[in-house]
Design a protein that fits this description.
25 strands, mainly beta, single chain, about 425 residues, about 15% helix, Glutaredoxin
Amino acid sequence: MKKNIFILLVAFAILLSSCKEGSQKIEQENVLPVLSEVNVLDLQKSIDSVIVRKSMAPLTNIENIEGFSTPENIDSFRILKTRLVYINTDENVEAYILSGFKGEKQILIIDTDIDMDFTDESVREFDGSFGKQVKNNYELTKRLPIDSIKIGDKTTYFQAYPYFGYFDQIKDSIEERYKVVINYNEKYSSSFSNDDKNYTIHINHKAMFGTTFRIYGGEGGSENFTEMPYKLKDTVLIENLDFSIDSVDFKKEMLYISHTNLSSKKTLNGARVGGYIKSRFDLIGKNPGTSIEDLTEENEYLLIGFWGTWCAPCIELLPDIKEVNTKYSDLNVLSVACEQDIEKVKSHISEYGMDWNNAFIDTKPKSKSNSPILNELKIDGYPTFILTDSKGKILSRGIGKSALDKIDNLLSQD
C-alpha cells in the first residue's frame, strides 16, 4: 500500500531557566495547525513535576566509597549511582546520590555538581515510610522538588526519591530500605488538529525501552488515547485518525509519520484496544494451544493477567483478581506466569488459591523474550492486565492496580 508521507518538522525551543519546585513550562502561542499531507509543527519543551518517565530499576550501590566526602551526622547511608541521559543527545553522565537515615527520617543528598562531595549539597528529608507510600501513590511525587545536573551547555532534569520494595518480594531487608528511583521531568510534545479535534503527541526520548510516544486529546489534553506507549513503527489508530510513526531524528528535529488507511480494514490484529488476540495459551495441567474462544465458551469476557512469582506487585494484586473473578459471573480469568520454574508457579497457584485458568510461558523474567505471545501483545511490564470479549477483541489493557480498577469499572457498567 503506497503511503502518503507527511512530515512533522520539529523546532526545539530551548528556554530553560533555573528549575523550581512545581512546574516550569514554556509558553507557546496556542494556534494548532490542521493535520494535512505536509505539516510543520513546533515541538514544545517543558520541565514539569508530573511524571514523564520513571527509572525502571533502582539505582545501584557503590561498594567502594573511597574518595567521597560525606556528612558526619548521619546514622547510616549508602552511596548509589545512575547514568543520567540527556534527552536530545547520545551523551550521558554518571551521577551519585547518598541515601541514608538520621533518626526516624530518611535523607537523600544529590551530588549536583558531580564532585563526589555531599557536604556542600542540600539535604532532603523524607518520612521513614515515604518509600512505601509512593509505590502505591505516584501523586506524592508532585510535591517533590526537581533537580538538575548540567554538563557544559546540556542539562538534565529529574526527581529522586526513596522507593521501597521495587521488584523484590522480600521487602524488609536492610539494603531494600536505601533504594532510590528517579523520574525524568523533561517533556517534549507537539499538537495538531484533525476534524475540529485537538491532539497532542508527547515524545519520551531515551526511555528504558527506546523512544516512546503518547497521544492525548480533548480539552486541555485530558483524554488519554494511549493505554500503552507507542514505539517507532507502531500504528496509531484513534477515532477516525490513523497513521504510523516511521522515524524520529532529534538532531535534525524531525518526526516522520505516514498515513495507513486502516479505516478500510475490518479486523485489526494487535496488542492495543480494538485489536484481536491470535495467540493460543498453554494451560497448566490441560491441553496446550487453548484459544480465547475456548476460554470464554460459556462467558462473555476474559481477563488475562501476566505475572511472575518474582514480581511483588503481582502477588499483592492477587486478592483483587480473586475479588473481580467472584464479582462477575460472565467473566473468566487467565493468569499467565512468565517464569523458568513451573514448579515454583504451581506452588504459588496453590498457596494463593488461584482457582482459575493458569498458563505458563518459559521465559527469563524481566528480559527480552522469544515468546510469540509476549511479543504479539508487547508485554514489557508486570502485572499487565488485558480484558477481551469472547472473540479475542481487546477492550481494555494496562499495567498495575489502576488497570485492574479500570477493568472492574468497565465490567460493572455492562
